[in-house]
């Protein structure tokens, strides 16, 4: 009771101060308050947690200092149904714009309908809706990264390593025996990264032999399990592990460590993302390289679009592809440049 009364008194006091300021100086800048709703597919995803932290930072320190932006975040626990409900809750709470990382990138219709009825624009990110769905309404945007480029860069990292070190072809048969650890089936990054990494190796004249692949849904523990199965089938034949993200590359390393293999029979491990643990693993050589998925750049682009939409100002200055899309570039990360990326933290 007492606490509540004190809180109430505090609120009156604050309102008075605010009122005083507003009357006291005409030049005092007005603060515009906005609410941004964010929902992402699964709160256990390493990369997305780091991207959401960057987004939070962007909204806390917007370029325009006269804005006060509050971000409401929801994790959808891998369920599209839960996410649809979260979107309704966020819109009903008065969000001015939504940032949506879809659970099922092929199933955004319910979200789009509700947002359109309430005229709340949506910026999708990281999990790209299919092109027809992006045409459902003019206030839909997408911010992500160029998946093909990430595969090409991972392939180029592998090419350089293989050319620079004859020992990687451990059995000396002139071919690189490799396995792939894949993310969620149906995710644009899974399909495209795998294809373009392998094509890049082939185009560069590296002879390959695919021993196996495992689907590990971006997840480190699942990757460890898949890798243990592949090792039991192929023993120490595996010379290269291409993983669709850092988590799965690290899961593969975990498998070798668990089996107590000596490092001389470890394959080369390559990831994608440059998450904190991924970069640390490049520093201590557990991963031979990764490809930086620019979460800072993506968050900045999302925040820019959100602010322009909420303030009705600046949309024309933003450079979109096909009026709706922004794709940030990826970067190669090796031991010799990893510090540049780690510093961004
Ligand atoms: C990242 C993965 C992440 C996935 C989630 C990908 O772009 O590389 O680490 O799990 O997005 O959608
Ligand atoms: Ca070989």
Brief overview, please?
It contains 12 helices and 12 strands. It has helices at about 1-25, 45-60, 80-90, 110-115, 130-135, 145-165, 190-205, 220-235, 245-260, 275-285, 295-310, 340; strands spanning about 30-40, 65-75, 95-100, 120-125, 140-145, 175-180, 210-215, 240-245, 270, 290-295, 325-330, 330-335.
Overview of this structure, please?
The protein is built from 12 helices and 12 strands. It has helices at residues 2-24, 46-60, 80-92, 109-117, 131-134, 147-164, 188-203, 220-234, 246-258, 276-283, 295-311, 338-342; strands spanning 32-40, 67-75, 97-100, 122-125, 140-145, 176-182, 208-215, 240-243, 268-270, 290-293, 325-328, 330-333. Strand 4 (122-125), helix 5 (131-134) and strand 5 form a beta-alpha-beta unit. Helix 2 (46-60) packs across helix 11, helix 3 (80-92) runs parallel beside helix 4 and helix 6 (147-164) runs parallel beside helix 7 (188-203). The structure holds beta-D-glucopyranose and calcium ion. The site of calcium ion (CA) has 7 residues, from strand 6.
* Nearest-integer average pLDDT: 92
Strand count: 12
Q: pLDDT below 50 for ≥5 consecutive residues: which ranges?
A: 1-27
Spell the H/E element sequence: HEHEHEHEHEHEHEHEHEHEHEEH
Number of helices: 12
Compute the separation of the termini in Å. 44 Å
In one word, what is the shape? elongated
**Can you list the strand order of the major beta sheet?**
2-1-3-4-5-11
| Share of residues in helices | 40-55%
Beta-strand share of residues: 15-25%
Q: Hetero groups bound?
A: beta-D-glucopyranose, calcium ion
Structural class: alpha/beta
Biggest β-sheet, characterized? Answer: 6 strands, parallel
Q: For the CA atoms, what is the radius of gyration?
A: 24 Å
């Amino acid at each position: 009771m007492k606490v509540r009364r004190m809180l109430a008194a505090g609120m009156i006091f604050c309102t008075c101060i605010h009122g005083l300021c507003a009357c006291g100086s005409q030049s005092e800048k007005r603060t515009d308050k906005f609410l941004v709703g964010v929902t992402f597919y699964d709160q256990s995803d390493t990369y997305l947690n780091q991207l959401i932290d960057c987004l939070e930072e962007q909204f806390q320190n917007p370029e325009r200092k006269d804005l006060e932006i509050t971000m409401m975040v929801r994790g959808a626990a891998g369920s599209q149904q839960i996410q649809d409900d979260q979107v309704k809750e966020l819109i009903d709470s008065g969000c001015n714009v939504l940032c949506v990382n879809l659970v099922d990138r092929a199933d955004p219709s319910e979200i789009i309908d509700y947002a359109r009825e309430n005229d709340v624009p949506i910026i999708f990110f990281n999990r790209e809706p299919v092109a027809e769905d992006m045409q459902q309404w003019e206030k839909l945007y997408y911010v992500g990264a160029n998946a093909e480029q990430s595969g090409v860069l991972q392939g180029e990292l592998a090419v350089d390593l293989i050319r620079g070190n004859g020992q990687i072809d451990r059995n000396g048969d002139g071919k690189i025996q490799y396995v792939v650890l894949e993310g969620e089936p149906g995710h644009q990054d899974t399909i495209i990264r795998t294809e373009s990494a392998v094509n890049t190796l082939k185009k560069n004249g590296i002879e390959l032999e695919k021993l196996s692949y495992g689907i590990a849904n971006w997840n480190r523990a699942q990757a460890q399990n898949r890798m243990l199965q592949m090792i039991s089938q192929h023993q120490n034949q595996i010379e290269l592990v291409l993983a669709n993200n850092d988590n799965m590359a690290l899961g593969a390393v975990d498998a070798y460590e668990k089996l107590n293999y000596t490092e001389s029979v470890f394959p080369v491990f390559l990831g994608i993302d440059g998450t904190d643990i991924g970069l640390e693993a490049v520093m201590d050589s557990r991963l031979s390289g990764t490809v930086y998925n620019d979460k800072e750049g993506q968050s900045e682009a999302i925040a820019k679009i959100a602010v322009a939409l909420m303030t009705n100002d600046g949309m024309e200055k933003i450079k979109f592809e096909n009026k709706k899309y922004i794709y940030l570039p990826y970067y190669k990360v090796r031991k010799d440049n990893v510090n540049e990326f780690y510093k961004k933290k």
